[in-house]
Amino acid sequence: MKILSAAQTRLLDQATIAEQHLTSTALMERAASAFAEWFFGRFDVDDAGEILILCGPGNNGGDGLAVARLLYQASYAVRVALLPAAQHSPDWQHNRQHLPAALPVAEISADQLPDIPAGLLVIDALFGTGLSRPLEGLPAAVVAHLNQAKARVVAIDIPSGLFTDAPQAADTAIVKADHTVSFSLPKLAFLLPQNAEYVGQWHVRDIQLSGQFIADTATPWHYTDEATMRGALPARPKFSHKGTFGHALLLAGSRGKIGAAMLATNACLRSGVGLLTVQVPGCGYDILQISAPEAMCLTDPHLDFISALPDLKPYQAVGIGPGLGQDAASLAVLRQLLEFASTTSENRPRPLPLIIDADALNLLGQHRELLALMPENTVLTPHPKEFERLTEKARDDYHRLELLRNFAQQYRCLVVLKGAYTCIATPDGELHFNSTGNPGMATGGSGDVLTGLLLALRADARLLPFQAVRLGVYAHGLAGDLAAAHTGHAGLVAGDIVRHIGPALMRV
Ligand SMILES: NC(=O)C1=CN([C@@H]2O[C@H](COP(=O)(O)OP(=O)(O)OC[C@H]3O[C@@H](n4cnc5c(N)ncnc54)[C@H](O)[C@@H]3O)[C@@H](O)[C@H]2O)[C@H](O)CC1
Ligand SMILES: [K+]
Predict the structure, then answer these.
(1) 314 Cα: distance to centroid of ligand 2 (angstroms)
(2) Cα–Cα nearest to 114, from 137, 142, 139, 140
(3) Which of 101, 154, 207, 328 lies 20 to 30 Å (CA to CA) from residue 267?
(4) Domain limits at 273?
(5) 190 and 272 share a domain?
(6) Would 224 be classed as within a structural domain?
(7) What is the residue with the minimal CA distance to atom 42 of ligand 1?
(8) E-assigned strands of 46-118?
(9) What sequence ranges are listed for the domain YjeF N-terminal (predicted)?
């Protein structure tokens, strides 16, 4: 699913109106009805109590006025407060005229801010995607007044004061909503941690905007949802054998961190790999052989960390990093791996697929000259701190996305920036936000599981690099969601994610 800018959203409205021979008022009615349907499902008349709808002067306020009418007609106790303005949009005026006469309407003024008792249900329809600058003066005062009241707040389209797709100063006036109900497509602002306190839980309701316009519109931002992933994992052919799905190599573990190697190993085994060989330091041999009999084990000459690169000819993909440690010998292994992987020959016309995680990323951060050795489509899986070690400290979440996009383009790699809405950056400059996963997964070992999963999918030659990575990230989050249904968020451990990879893959 695409994510569009505020400017593109405006064009999308116009394209929809033209294509479907609608009036803009009819489109507004669609949006208001979609919002009202959501609202009816969430708050029934008796629980809702009195509802205050704050309306601005543009089409977001117009939506608010149409919603007021629909809620009134459904017997909710609604009152409207209007922000004074010199001009109102035509659809605002239409809906103002069609408000039932019995519905109370007041105009807001600086010395007459609306009364907002604790617990009141407030619908925020002050400003939407037409916001052109930070709020000041009376609108900012109304927002501050709303935020300090202990009200339940539902924003129409976007919390008022929040930009759709651009950063803004920390002290600007922005409505803090409990829920945001948006139309047809999610907005970039919803996906960034710095906006979470404003957006609350967000919901998207379809209003049949022009599919053609969306398909024809270029954007770097994408959202990977269930529909995107339907059928993403190719079925295993009847006459397949273990060679069909690739032989993967994992280089992982150091003394005290063999657990990381085991989580990645078990995740890889559960993700459809044909064969898996794991190289661990000597201290990991018994652990690996006993707890993962399906994997083959290569023992590193060193007892405590990885110090030597094995012969790489047998493998279709290599993962390195979980529990690796940062010894100089492991750094040398990483360097040799990058050099080997980039070299192509008649037998291996394409570079060897690599997954680089955890301490291997930290080593790259300390020796950035190695970045230039990475073959195209190498997969890096940093969390934000690890990513900063590869680049620089980000000013805010938008700047981090910019750094991410530039980095993936510069090094022609795939970067998986882990977190809520894990973001995959591609060599072509696309950013794909993931929809699955939950806060229970913010626990040690989750990343090792992702590495194992990605390793298996990159070894499968049937999947293109980006397809494999998007599928791996989505399935990882989904496995976490399925696991959390049994364990809850606090009780979730990384091994639970591994046990749910199979069921997660069954759904794609
Ligand atoms: N497809 C859809 O998503 C649909 C969305 N709809 C709704 O329309 C709004 C966008 O409406 P628009 O009229 O373009 O903008 P706003 O209502 O957000 O505000 C414009 C209004 O506000 C003034 N203004 C802008 N910035 C400021 C500021 N900082 N301070 C004071 N005043 C400001 C500006 O001059 C205008 O007067 C979208 O979010 C949806 O809610 C439609 O219903 C159709 C379908
Ligand atoms: K709003």
Answers:
(1) 57
(2) 142
(3) 328
(4) 229-233+243-506
(5) no
(6) no
(7) 28
(8) 50-55, 77-82, 105-107
(9) 9-215
